[in-house]
Amino acid sequence: MAKYRNKVEFFAPKTTDTRLQKSIGVDLPFNEESGIFRKTYVDVQQVIANLKNLLSTTKGDRYMLPEFGTELKFILFENITSEEEIYNRIRAEISDAISYWMPYVGIRSIEVDTNITSDGRVLEPDHAIFVDLNLYISYLNIYLPVKLFISETGNVSITEATNE
Hints:
By secondary structure, the chain is α+β, with helices and mostly antiparallel strands. It is built from four helices and six strands; from the N terminus they run H-E-E-H-H-H-E-E-E-E.
């Protein structure tokens, strides 16, 4: 017979002692100084780890799952003809990936900023893309603001946004 998790555990663990909690996944980046994988104990942490994994992976990198991931790294180095075109490509890439691979996460809004001037030049940092995602985790009934930064080298970093 299957056991179901208590709904209280979705929002916060009952204790802060991780030795007494049951982990639900692995956090990113994988390696810790001790060489042991960091574990996640709260669903929101696991959603962020899954999002990092999805958006940081390039399509074709995952063995047996060639469609897993996004083309965000390649969009950065394409010829930019208009701001609206690049914004739409980034929005479509992110929303398609999240809706297919993470159907339990809804997208409220995607704001893209490429720092493009009126004459087509990119301001500092060179060739960088900033994305503000406002997500909705349906089974937790919470909103999750996330910041995404794609650097000029193609590295993708994702962090939970703070209210500052």
